[in-house]
Design a protein that fits this description.
Immunoglobulin-like; alpha+beta; 3-stranded antiparallel β-sheet; 34% strand; 5-stranded mixed β-sheet
Protein backbone atom coordinates (compact mmCIF):
# COMPACT_ATOMS: atom_id res chain seq x y z
CA UNK A 1 0.00 0.00 0.00
CA UNK A 2 1.29 3.45 -0.94
CA UNK A 3 2.20 5.93 1.78
CA UNK A 4 2.89 9.50 0.73
CA UNK A 5 5.48 11.62 2.54
CA UNK A 6 3.97 14.85 1.20
CA UNK A 7 3.62 17.10 4.29
CA UNK A 8 0.05 17.50 5.56
CA UNK A 9 0.67 21.18 6.28
CA UNK A 10 2.77 23.60 4.24
CA UNK A 11 3.35 27.35 4.27
CA UNK A 12 2.97 29.31 1.05
CA UNK A 13 6.23 30.82 -0.18
CA UNK A 14 8.46 28.03 1.18
CA UNK A 15 10.27 25.17 -0.56
CA UNK A 16 8.51 21.84 -0.13
CA UNK A 17 10.54 18.64 -0.53
CA UNK A 18 9.68 15.00 0.12
CA UNK A 19 10.61 11.45 -0.93
CA UNK A 20 8.25 8.58 -1.78
CA UNK A 21 9.33 4.95 -1.83
CA UNK A 22 8.46 2.26 -4.39
CA UNK A 23 5.06 0.59 -4.04
CA UNK A 24 2.73 -1.84 -5.80
CA UNK A 25 -0.48 -1.28 -7.75
CA UNK A 26 -2.78 -3.19 -10.04
CA UNK A 27 -2.17 -6.92 -9.99
CA UNK A 28 1.15 -7.08 -8.09
CA UNK A 29 2.67 -4.47 -10.42
CA UNK A 30 5.84 -3.04 -8.85
CA UNK A 31 5.84 0.75 -9.18
CA UNK A 32 9.44 1.90 -8.91
CA UNK A 33 11.79 4.53 -10.27
CA UNK A 34 13.20 4.95 -12.95
CA UNK A 35 10.79 2.60 -14.81
CA UNK A 36 7.70 4.51 -13.69
CA UNK A 37 6.97 8.25 -13.57
CA UNK A 38 5.19 9.55 -10.47
CA UNK A 39 3.22 12.81 -10.55
CA UNK A 40 1.34 14.68 -7.83
CA UNK A 41 -1.62 16.86 -8.75
CA UNK A 42 -2.51 19.49 -6.15
CA UNK A 43 -5.80 21.42 -6.37
CA UNK A 44 -8.04 23.59 -4.28
CA UNK A 45 -11.62 24.81 -4.71
CA UNK A 46 -10.51 27.98 -6.55
CA UNK A 47 -10.58 27.82 -10.34
CA UNK A 48 -7.23 27.99 -12.15
CA UNK A 49 -5.44 27.10 -8.90
CA UNK A 50 -3.33 23.96 -8.92
CA UNK A 51 0.15 22.53 -9.22
CA UNK A 52 1.79 19.42 -10.70
CA UNK A 53 4.96 17.95 -9.16
CA UNK A 54 6.86 15.28 -11.09
CA UNK A 55 9.23 12.99 -9.20
CA UNK A 56 12.80 12.22 -10.15
CA UNK A 57 14.80 9.15 -9.11
CA UNK A 58 16.05 9.48 -5.54
CA UNK A 59 19.76 8.70 -4.96
CA UNK A 60 19.99 5.55 -7.11
CA UNK A 61 17.08 4.01 -5.17
CA UNK A 62 13.74 2.78 -6.42
CA UNK A 63 11.94 5.83 -4.96
CA UNK A 64 11.26 9.38 -6.13
CA UNK A 65 12.14 12.80 -4.80
CA UNK A 66 9.86 15.78 -5.25
CA UNK A 67 10.38 19.50 -4.88
CA UNK A 68 8.05 22.49 -5.15
CA UNK A 69 9.94 25.76 -5.32
CA UNK A 70 9.27 28.65 -2.96
CA UNK A 71 8.27 30.75 -5.97
CA UNK A 72 5.67 28.18 -7.05
CA UNK A 73 4.27 27.68 -3.53
CA UNK A 74 4.01 31.47 -3.05
CA UNK A 75 1.10 31.31 -5.51
CA UNK A 76 -0.79 28.79 -3.34
CA UNK A 77 -3.93 30.20 -1.75
CA UNK A 78 -4.24 29.48 1.98
CA UNK A 79 -6.79 26.82 2.90
CA UNK A 80 -7.59 23.17 2.24
CA UNK A 81 -5.98 21.54 -0.78
CA UNK A 82 -6.45 18.07 -2.23
CA UNK A 83 -3.84 15.90 -3.88
CA UNK A 84 -3.75 12.85 -6.08
CA UNK A 85 -0.67 10.86 -7.10
CA UNK A 86 -0.51 8.84 -10.30
CA UNK A 87 2.07 6.42 -11.68
CA UNK A 88 2.70 6.30 -15.45
CA UNK A 89 4.50 3.70 -17.58
CA UNK A 90 3.65 3.55 -21.27
CA UNK A 91 -0.11 3.06 -21.57
CA UNK A 92 -0.50 2.07 -17.90
CA UNK A 93 -1.75 4.66 -15.42
CA UNK A 94 -2.50 3.93 -11.77
CA UNK A 95 -3.84 6.35 -9.21
CA UNK A 96 -1.95 5.12 -6.17
CA UNK A 97 -2.93 7.68 -3.56
CA UNK A 98 -4.89 10.78 -2.67
CA UNK A 99 -5.40 13.00 0.32
CA UNK A 100 -5.67 16.46 1.79
CA UNK A 101 -3.22 19.07 2.95
CA UNK A 102 -3.46 22.51 4.51
CA UNK A 103 -1.71 25.52 3.03
CA UNK A 104 -0.96 28.20 5.60
CA UNK A 105 -0.59 31.84 4.65
CA UNK A 106 2.96 33.14 4.66
CA UNK A 107 3.80 35.75 7.28
CA UNK A 108 6.57 37.18 5.09
CA UNK A 109 5.88 40.64 3.68
CA UNK A 110 7.53 43.55 1.95
CA UNK A 111 6.66 47.17 2.69
CA UNK A 112 3.83 47.67 5.17
CA UNK A 113 2.32 44.46 6.53
CA UNK A 114 -1.40 43.92 5.98
CA UNK A 115 -3.73 42.57 8.64
CA UNK A 116 -3.84 38.79 8.96
CA UNK A 117 -6.53 36.61 10.49
CA UNK A 118 -5.33 33.05 11.08
CA UNK A 119 -8.29 32.05 13.23
CA UNK A 120 -10.13 28.88 12.29
CA UNK A 121 -13.72 29.12 11.10
CA UNK A 122 -14.90 27.80 14.47
CA UNK A 123 -12.95 30.56 16.27
CA UNK A 124 -14.50 33.20 13.99
CA UNK A 125 -17.98 31.76 14.60
CA UNK A 126 -17.40 31.66 18.36
CA UNK A 127 -16.34 35.33 18.36
CA UNK A 128 -19.45 36.27 16.34
CA UNK A 129 -21.79 34.36 18.70
CA UNK A 130 -20.09 35.86 21.76
CA UNK A 131 -20.51 39.37 20.28
CA UNK A 132 -24.20 38.65 19.58
CA UNK A 133 -24.79 37.48 23.16
CA UNK A 134 -22.92 40.49 24.54
CA UNK A 135 -24.97 42.89 22.38
CA UNK A 136 -28.26 41.32 23.51
CA UNK A 137 -27.29 41.21 27.19
CA UNK A 138 -26.19 44.85 27.15
CA UNK A 139 -29.51 45.85 25.50
CA UNK A 140 -27.75 47.08 22.39
CA UNK A 141 -29.78 44.82 20.12
CA UNK A 142 -33.19 43.19 20.11
CA UNK A 143 -32.16 41.06 17.16
CA UNK A 144 -28.81 39.87 15.76
CA UNK A 145 -27.80 38.21 12.48
CA UNK A 146 -24.96 35.73 12.09
CA UNK A 147 -24.51 34.57 8.52
CA UNK A 148 -27.96 33.71 7.17
CA UNK A 149 -29.55 33.15 10.62
CA UNK A 150 -31.29 35.83 12.69
CA UNK A 151 -31.64 35.54 16.46
CA UNK A 152 -34.10 37.54 18.56
CA UNK A 153 -33.69 38.42 22.19
CA UNK A 154 -35.86 35.46 23.16
CA UNK A 155 -33.41 33.12 21.35
CA UNK A 156 -30.62 33.85 23.82
CA UNK A 157 -30.63 30.24 25.07
CA UNK A 158 -30.08 28.98 21.50
CA UNK A 159 -27.12 31.32 21.15
CA UNK A 160 -25.69 30.13 24.46
CA UNK A 161 -26.04 26.48 23.35
CA UNK A 162 -24.30 27.33 20.06
CA UNK A 163 -21.58 29.13 22.02
CA UNK A 164 -20.99 26.04 24.18
CA UNK A 165 -20.70 23.80 21.07
CA UNK A 166 -18.27 26.21 19.43
CA UNK A 167 -16.15 26.47 22.59
CA UNK A 168 -15.86 22.68 22.60
CA UNK A 169 -14.83 22.62 18.94
CA UNK A 170 -12.26 25.39 19.43
CA UNK A 171 -10.81 23.58 22.46
CA UNK A 172 -10.52 20.37 20.40
CA UNK A 173 -8.80 22.24 17.57
CA UNK A 174 -6.31 23.82 19.98
CA UNK A 175 -5.66 20.45 21.62
CA UNK A 176 -5.03 18.83 18.24
CA UNK A 177 -2.75 21.73 17.26
CA UNK A 178 -0.65 21.28 20.41
CA UNK A 179 -0.37 17.53 19.84
CA UNK A 180 0.58 17.96 16.16
CA UNK A 181 3.29 20.48 17.13
CA UNK A 182 4.77 17.96 19.56
CA UNK A 183 3.82 20.07 22.59
CA UNK A 184 1.86 17.30 24.28
CA UNK A 185 -1.77 16.66 25.10
CA UNK A 186 -3.17 19.24 27.55
CA UNK A 187 -5.61 16.61 28.83
CA UNK A 188 -2.78 14.39 30.09
CA UNK A 189 -1.72 15.01 33.66
CA UNK A 190 1.51 13.43 34.83
CA UNK A 191 2.13 12.95 38.54
CA UNK A 192 5.47 12.07 40.00
CA UNK A 193 5.91 10.54 43.43
Amino acid sequence: MFKSDLPSEITAGTTIEWVDEATTAGINETISSPDWTLEYYLRTNTSSEGHTATGTQYSNSSGWQFSISATASAEFIAGNWFWSVRAFKGAKVFEIGSGELTVKQSLQYTGTPAAIDNRTQNEKDLDAVTAAIRAMVEDKAQEYSIGNRTFKRIDLDKLENLQAKLRSRVASEKRYSLISQGLGDPKNLYVRF
